[in-house]
């Protein structure tokens, strides 16, 4: 789920797009299935019920009729038209699970999983394809029974063999590294009978039953030719997926538009988890070449909903006669999402950024207070944690539980990790950018960089020159931010080469880790888990296309990640996330940017939404799932 990323739209990086989708799917979107009501302290695993909660009890009882944040009487019909949900400007495949190419937006509408989550709980989920789940007493496996009504879009029943095929495929080298990493702790799937599947785990973890339940399921016939041969999974392009979701692809054109139609044979519409959802007859995506074209198209009436990530646009540009006449409406919807992390990422594979003092100096050079005042209309807060806006954020001094994780690595870790968290620099009086740059110059000098002959140079006389990589679709809206940052770095004698390239080349370079610095938004998660292994694990740092864009390789971080993913109680999970947050923040691997605790949405006045808002949600996911068109005069509701 997104968090209302401020000042610019979410940076689309394939690894992060897939990780975001899978994380949202397994934690809130289509997460898990049915059982395992666990308390906050360790308990035996054996349990079978209607819902699963990683910690605590599921909110909804066995006889619930629908989620609180839907309108069960919402009318069905109409075509919802949307624009690019991220930086994607074109697509060349319908397979979202592979590395090569760009997948069409909205493909999650085609796939379902054994379970689905609710948007008002952080880590609970309810039966979807599955109607029963049993957790082994030792917690090392989970068994799902399939709903006999479950059907794929081609009319075939969903079988345990299809579920096994899905897992085996997503764990194979033909899937992208983030997808493989998401299911790495599931050792195998065993077909017990045609309607029963068992997932076996590498370790005992409360998260793994949720991950297993949240895995997207597709038919083994996807990619099967008429003669019985199979198209390799990583070569699937415009072969339409065979999933069990509520929508099917109706048409697409030139890799720039795609329309999904509500499947008239969809099997699950009356399930409690589906009542009041999927209210649009059709959903169309139109992909625009850049932010300016996308905004002007919305104001011209070409699509129905704009989720605004740029503060200046929200205040100054999302205006005009259609807004004045109330044809277009602006609303800010609060949420309780974790913020994730958005920032200038410094690639640790590059020698320039391997000294923590250099990275800390770069943090000092960003004048957030000026940017917020002059460019962002005071709408944002500075990020000061990888888990901001959640209980997972570290605070104060390390607790005994955190120290138990950090102490074995004292020889590797900087001693400052065992003290207070670093404060983000401020230029509010009595502070100033000049004072921050003086501190930055001292740090650079300690790292061997001194100003002489008109530039910051190392002992060999080489100047400090690096490239900031961007994509052309966002470079216009980002120009003012880059101008301030580049000017401040220039005062230190650092030369910045700003390069904006088309999205395809940008994506290719990020997948190959061929960059010095770029802006990335790392996905948020209310309950962090195995997705962090792909983001921070040493192994992922050497895998092209992985989520470890930082290039972080740290045995201490690997050990903390192991403790995090194997946490059996909420206090254990908190200790691990706090310890990880301390190591990451003191490492200055990114220059943190900013966040907003609301979703800014502009939409046509013909659209309506439920009276009760969810708590943890992405704006577009919520709109697609629960909004509807108001019945118009002269029509039958």
Automatic annotation (TrEMBL):
GO terms for cellular component: ATP-binding cassette (ABC) transporter complex; outer membrane-bounded periplasmic space. Residues 1-48 form the signal peptide. One of its GO terms (molecular function) is peptide transmembrane transporter activity. The keyword Signal applies. GO terms for biological process: microcin transport; peptide transport. Pfam families: SBP_bac_5 (PF00496). Keywords: Signal. It comes from the Bacteria. This is ABC transporter substrate-binding protein.
């Amino acid at each position: 789920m997104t968090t209302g990323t401020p000042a610019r739209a979410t940076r689309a990086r394939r690894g992060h797009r897939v990780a975001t989708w899978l994380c949202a799917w397994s934690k809130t979107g289509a997460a898990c299935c049915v059982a395992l009501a666990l308390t906050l302290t360790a308990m035996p695993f054996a349990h079978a019920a209607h819902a699963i909660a990683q910690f605590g009890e599921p909110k909804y009882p066995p006889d619930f009729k629908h989620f609180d944040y839907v309108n069960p009487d919402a009318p069905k019909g109409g075509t919802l038209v949307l624009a690019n949900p991220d930086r994607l400007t074109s697509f060349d495949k319908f397979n979202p699970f592979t590395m090569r190419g760009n997948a069409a937006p909205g493909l999650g509408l085609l796939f379902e999983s054994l379970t689905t989550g609710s948007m008002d709980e952080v880590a609970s989920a309810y039966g979807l394809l599955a109607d029963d789940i049993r957790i082994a007493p030792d917690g090392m496996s989970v068994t799902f029974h399939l709903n006999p009504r479950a059907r794929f879009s081609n009319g075939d029943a969903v079988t345990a063999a299809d579920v096994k095929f899905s897992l085996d495929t997503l764990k194979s080298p033909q899937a992208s590294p983030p997808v493989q990493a998401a299911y790495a702790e599931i050792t195998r799937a065993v077909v017990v009978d045609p309607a029963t599947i068992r997932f076996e785990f590498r370790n005992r973890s409360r998260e793994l039953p949720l991950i297993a339940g949240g895995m997207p399921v597709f038919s083994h016939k996807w990619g099967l030719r008429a003669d019985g041969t199979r198209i390799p999974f990583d070569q699937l392009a415009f072969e339409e997926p065979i999933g069990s979701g509520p929508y099917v692809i109706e048409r697409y054109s030139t890799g720039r538009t795609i329309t999904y139609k509500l499947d008239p044979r969809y099997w699950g519409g009356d399930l409690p988890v589906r009542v009041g959802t999927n209210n649009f007859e059709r959903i169309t995506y139109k992909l625009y070449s850049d932010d300016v074209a996308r905004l002007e198209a919305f104001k011209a009436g070409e699509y129905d909903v704009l989720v605004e990530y740029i503060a200046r646009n929200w205040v100054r540009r999302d205006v005009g006669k259609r807004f004045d006449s109330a044809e277009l409406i602006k609303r800010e919807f609060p949420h309780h999402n974790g913020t994730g992390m958005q920032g200038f990422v410094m690639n640790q594979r590059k020698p320039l950024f391997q000294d923590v003092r250099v990275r800390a100096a770069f943090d000092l050079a960003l004048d957030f207070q000026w940017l917020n005042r002059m460019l962002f209309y005071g709408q944002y807060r500075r990020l000061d944690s990888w888990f901001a806006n959640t209980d997972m954020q570290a605070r104060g001094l390390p607790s005994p539980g955190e120290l138990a994780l950090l102490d074995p690595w004292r020889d590797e870790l900087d001693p400052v990790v065992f003290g207070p968290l670093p404060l983000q620099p401020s230029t509010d009086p009595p502070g100033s950018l000049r004072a921050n740059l003086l501190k930055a110059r001292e740090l650079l000098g300690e790292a061997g960089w001194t100003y002489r002959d008109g530039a910051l140079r190392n002992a060999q006389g080489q100047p400090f020159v690096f490239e900031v990589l961007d994509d052309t679709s966002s470079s216009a809206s980002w120009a003012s931010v880059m101008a301030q940052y580049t000017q401040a770095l220039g005062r230190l004698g650092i030369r910045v080469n700003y390069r904006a390239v088309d999205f395809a080349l940008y994506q290719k370079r990020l997948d190959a880790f061929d960059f010095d610095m770029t802006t990335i938004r790392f996905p948020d998660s209310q309950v962090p888990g195995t997705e962090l292994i792909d983001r921070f694990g040493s192994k992922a740092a050497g895998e092209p296309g992985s989520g470890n864009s930082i290039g972080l390789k740290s045995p201490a971080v690997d050990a903390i990640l192991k403790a995090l993913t194997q946490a059996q109680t909420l206090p254990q999970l908190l200790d691990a996330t706090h310890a990880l947050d301390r190591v990451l923040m003191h490492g200055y691997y990114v220059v943190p940017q900013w966040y907003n605790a609301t979703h800014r949405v502009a939409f046509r006045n013909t659209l309506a939404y439920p009276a009760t808002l969810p708590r943890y949600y992405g704006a577009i996911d919520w709109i697609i799932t629960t909004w509807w068109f108001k019945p118009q005069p002269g029509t039958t509701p």
